[in-house]
Write a structure and sequence with these properties.
The chain has 143 residues and is α+β, with helices and mostly antiparallel strands. The protein contains 4 helices and 6 strands; from the N terminus they run H-E-E-E-E-H-H-E-E-H. It is globular and about 45 Å long.
């Protein structure tokens, strides 16, 4: 079985940037500017059957201030249609408060996130799915 350390090395050798490592998965980075990388919402994890490509899509409350929570999740699911059509499956939803780094008790916005996964047998099978996930629009645009 591959370790997370080995997985990180393989990802870097395949041209991906690493944002961080979480228990059981490696989070890929998205380069916004030369000196700024962010969490891409795309992850690769190790599972018993091989690997699991996961992508997290979301919508921000500030972009849709009057919509109820179920409608925000529905917007995210519509955004996910290309992933669902390609064999990804929804696994969870999460409401994530975005806190002010200077004043953690202050919530700046709220993100409504839906996670989707696709299992593959080998690392080489995962690479095109990671590239596909990175090509997706991962945040719902304002109406």
């Amino acid at each position: 079985m591959t370790s997370l350390s080995q997985l990180k090395k393989e990802l870097v050798a395949s041209g991906f940037e690493i944002f961080r490592t979480l228990p059981g998965e490696v989070v890929l980075a998205e380069r916004v500017r030369e000196n700024l990388i962010l969490d891409s919402g795309v992850r690769l994890g190790i599972v018993a059957s091989g690997f699991c490509v996961r992508v997290v899509l979301g919508a921000l409350r500030a972009d849709f201030p009057t919509e109820p929570e179920p409608m925000l999740f529905e917007r995210v699911r519509r955004l996910a249609e290309p992933a669902l059509a390609s064999g990804f499956a929804e696994i969870s939803t999460h409401v994530n408060p975005i806190r002010d780094p200077a004043y953690p008790e202050r919530i700046l916005d709220t993100s409504y996130e839906v996670s989707f996964t696709r299992e593959v047998a080998s690392f080489s099978d995962a690479v095109p799915w990671l590239q596909f996930a990175l090509s997706l629009q991962r945040t719902v645009s304002k109406a």
